[in-house]
Amino acid sequence: MKKESQEMEEWERYYIENKDKTIEELQEDQIKSLENTLRMLKSHFPPIFIPVVKKAEGEDLEKSELAQIRASKDSRELSARIRGLRKVFKTNYYDALDKVIGKDVLVRKENYVGKAEPVHTRDTSTSEEPVQSIDGAGQTRKLPKGFAKWDLKQIKLHESQVDNEEPKWSDYWTSRGETAVGEVLFNESKIVYYFRPYDTENFSTFPLTSDKGRKLTREARNYYYRSSPNPPA
Fold first, then answer.
1. Residues 164 and 103 in one domain
2. What is the pLDDT of residues 2-22, one digit of tens each?
């Protein structure tokens, strides 16, 4: 006996509704879904939606915008959703965002094939002469001078000890141009090393090791690190 539509699992319903669609039609549906998601987030978080979107791009916010973000208990959740959509959909995210908030909200610059990409106002160390780095997939990336992959030994050497009068500062860099300065700390109860950024309002703390300190996390494997002589101003 065939299942009624309301009794179907979500994946079954999705398969039946989309099995005859072309790849182009599926991609178009996905972009429409992205736009609807952004509209939904904008309607659910009206006071902080645009400030959070601007913050995700590293733009300088007005004092009123910062106050709205700090006053909202939902700002962290919204920020995580926006960063996730931005990471997954890339240029399609910005195209959908233009339809939701307009093209004049974010500070933009002209980029490849006429596409407009947001301007990152944070210092991403791109002013330094980059060197070639080959990742695990064999792709060549531009790596700013001084950055290198970390292993467990390097993580331990960069740890900021509690009894140190001056903390040890390190910064990371990703191929997306993201960077933050912070400390490498050790959690004795969980037996893990983790990176705590100096600017905790704009960047998140993340673990560097797992499995009781025996394995590197995704961030520790895929990010590039170096010593930072001074804490950020």
1. no
2. 445 456 676 677 677 777 878
